[in-house]
Specification:
By secondary structure, this protein is mainly α. It has 13 helices and no strands. The longest helix is centred in the N-terminal third of the chain and has 19 residues. The N terminus is likely disordered.
Length: 243
């Protein structure tokens, strides 16, 4: 099923620090995040750093094999070394999403965001939880806020989030809000967005044959690494399985 594809954030400081961060500018949030990460790593011996990286690498490999419980076990070992490392928290949250323990996932993501406010991946992951749970109204609001807050994010991530927002509108029976997100074809298309948005639009209007044609075109043009995330987004709402 769904594998949350973004990672990075932390656990365990004080909520007072989090509330203070809410009024900071983007530059101040970034500086605060960098300072906290530097402080975490400064006191570690070389051996502990190597052990930490080893546990993180194992957890990512196990996640790639869909062995999420084993991945969580590796992250617990990493937490013994650095309880509040950003990669540990965000990856732990992603693993809990995949085993459908959404409340635990939210706790990890929310604390990570409170402590490290400049990590956009955690904001995305929180929006993803609502999407996976079928709360498309809340997901729509969070994806919209995310795009407004990070206008300079890379095109691959931006287009994928626009696609999720597009699907949220369709699932909420808001085609009039989804349609403006469709865009004309460009020979310089760098992401599957154009093809998958056309696919979803056709499927929403009960034209499954055309929908499948759009997907087939996308899978011929783009690599599996590029279109798998889009397939996952459709699988979560039950559309891909219907084709």
């Amino acid at each position: 099923m769904k594998a949350i594809s973004f990672f990075a954030l932390l656990l365990a400081l004080a909520l007072s620090l989090a509330s203070a961060a809410q009024d900071l500018t983007s530059e101040e949030k970034l500086q605060l995040t960098q300072e906290r990460i530097a402080a975490l790593m400064e006191g570690l011996s070389l051996a502990d750093r190597e052990r930490l990286l080893n546990h993180l690498e194992k957890s990512r490999r196990l996640s790639g094999q869909k062995r999420f419980i084993d991945a969580i076990a590796e992250l617990w070992e990493a937490q013994k070394i650095v309880p509040d490392h950003p990669d540990v928290l965000n990856h732990m949250g992603a693993c809990y999403v995949n085993v459908r323990d959404f409340e635990s996932a939210k706790e990890y993501f929310q604390l990570a965001l409170e402590l490290y406010p400049s990590y956009w991946s955690t904001e995305f992951n929180l929006a993803e939880i609502y999407y996976v749970q079928g709360d498309y109204s809340q997901a729509r609001e969070r994806f919209t806020t995310f795009l407004e807050r990070y206008p300079k994010i890379d095109s691959g991530t931006r287009d994928f989030i626009y696609f999720k927002l597009f699907l949220c509108h369709l699932m909420l029976e808001e085609p009039e809000k989804a349609e403006p997100l469709l865009r004309p074809y460009s020979v310089d298309e760098e992401t599957p967005f154009f093809y998958y948005s056309q696919m979803a639009w056709a499927y929403y209007h009960e034209n499954e044959e055309l929908s499948e044609e759009w997907r087939n075109s996308a899978t011929r043009i783009f690599s599996k690494e590029q279109f798998t995330f889009y397939d996952d987004a459709l699988a979560e709402i039950g559309w891909l399985f219907a084709l």
